[in-house]
Amino acid sequence: MGKRLLCVTLAIMSLVQYVSATSVICYHGTWSYYRTGNGKFVFSNVPTDLCTHYIYTFMGLDSSTSEVVSLDSWLDIDLGGITAAANLKVTNPDLKVLLAVGGWNAGSAEFSVMAADATKRATFIASALSWVQTYGLDGFDLDWEYPARRDSTNSADKENLSLLVQEFYEVFNPLGLLITAAVSVTPSSVDISYDVPVLSQYLDFINLMLYDFHGSWDTEAYHNAPLYSTSKLIGTEYADYSVNACVHGWIERGASPAKLALGVPFYGRTTVLSSSSNTAPGSASTSTGGAAGPYTATSGFLGYNEIVEKFNAGGWTTAWDDEQQVPYAYSGTTWLSYDDEDSIALKVEYAKSLGLGAIMIWSIETEDFLGLNGTQYPLLTTIQNTLGSSISSSSTTSTSTSTTSTTAASTTASTTSTTAAMTSTAAASSATTASTTTTSTPTASSSVGSSSTSTLIADANSCTSTGYFGSSANSNIYFYCQLVNGAYVGVTMSCVTSLVYDSDLGVCVYP
Ligand SMILES: *[C@@H]1O[C@H](CO)[C@@H](O)[C@H](O)[C@H]1NC(C)=O
Ligand SMILES: *[C@@H]1O[C@H](CO)[C@@H](O)[C@H](O)[C@H]1NC(C)=O
Known about the structure:
This protein is 33% helix and 21% strand. By secondary structure, it is α/β, with parallel strands linked by helices. It has an eight-stranded parallel barrel with strand order 1-2-4-5-6-7-8-14, surrounded by six helices. Strands 10-9-13-12-11 form a five-stranded antiparallel sheet. Strands 15-16-17-18 form a four-stranded mixed sheet. Helix 10 (243-252) links the parallel strand 7 and strand 8 (260-265). The longest helix has 17 residues, at 118-134. The radius of gyration is 22 Å and the shape is globular. The two termini are 16 Å apart. Bound molecules: 2-acetamido-2-deoxy-beta-D-glucopyranose (2 copies). Residues 116, 118, 154, 156, 159-160, 163 line the site of one 2-acetamido-2-deoxy-beta-D-glucopyranose (NAG).
């Protein structure tokens, strides 16, 4: 009985994240420790009150043993990097601290070899668990960039990644540990690399890397991370290189919106224009990166903190791209696409409108953490303020859904620290506070789909308002309805095998 109750509790805890309050997932490129001057960012610079999840990057994969290994034992171990990360929970006990393996530099081939062999997968998972438990962390983040692409051409990667993620879930979930992954985002790469429904079912969050769409490698100057696609690229292979097109691509392929984390870059990309008099987006460029910044030291790339310093030094003209809803700037022939408080606020509003579960940041060490443009952490603060503002106005249905599931979690499981983390960061909002004080009366049915009287609908074509709805025909099925171009569109989702959708609680439960 006790065990069964625990299972139910854990199942609800994990599934509640389908429809939970918006999390803020902060990646940290820990090598920022070695930067100098204003670029040096150490663990005490991590704003633990502005993130709900902190991810330490990057560990490596040892191809001979299939184990997770330190790539920089001086920083990770000798200087106490991972311990310092774990200790971030001292200032915010609700912060979830995860360790990431992989990243761009790790390539894809070694992951492919590991994932293709059941024994190697088990070894990998056991070593990940060992790191997590040794340091008292909350979970693990997989950054295999990318299955069946780059230096891995194994078309079985997609299926084998699904097995790896499922096996991770089976080990981590019963222990209350999180498993997340960073993924590539464009529809064509998703089709090659990911079984979306499986990832959506077993991962706690799918971190969408919604940036690096364009850069100095292109022959025209386009934006690093546009919210909307540009009409100039319609009909080309780049037509869906935008946050909007890619997020919809994931949802259309079966991702639960609440499992998706909308990635926001705290950096910009530079390219050298062919002519300093043609500066509009889409102008010809020389396929050369602009000069490296003083801290990130990478041609074609500038951290937001480096952008602030450059703008403060003068000589830049800034502009706003109305179509793509992002800023850009230029100085002579150097063209910069970047994100600022305005574009990030729009992306957060966008995430809220679709009921996405999280905002993800790559990466916090290039935030304006010193406040060189006025206030410290302006971008993270913008994210929190934008999330908070809708919660207090409680005008959007997706927020109601989130608040409701927080309530359900609180009544069901006293150990939902993930939920607690989400709630505490939004504590400024009175509405959130109110929802947590009324945990004894979960009233999801009244807020899920507030303009509808029924919480059950026939099928995905029967949506008449935004929110989550159960299926009147099949208790295992539910729908996420949203307004797209003036019409309600539904996405069909199913509970994990053996669970049914409870439309009062807004989560999947044991029947
Ligand atoms: C994983 O990929 C390999 C090919 O590399 C394939 O032989 C294998 O069947 C796949 N699935 C499993 C369960 O390992
Ligand atoms: C610096 O702050 C000003 C005033 O808030 C703002 O307009 C500008 O966009 C900021 N700079 C950057 C690089 O975001």
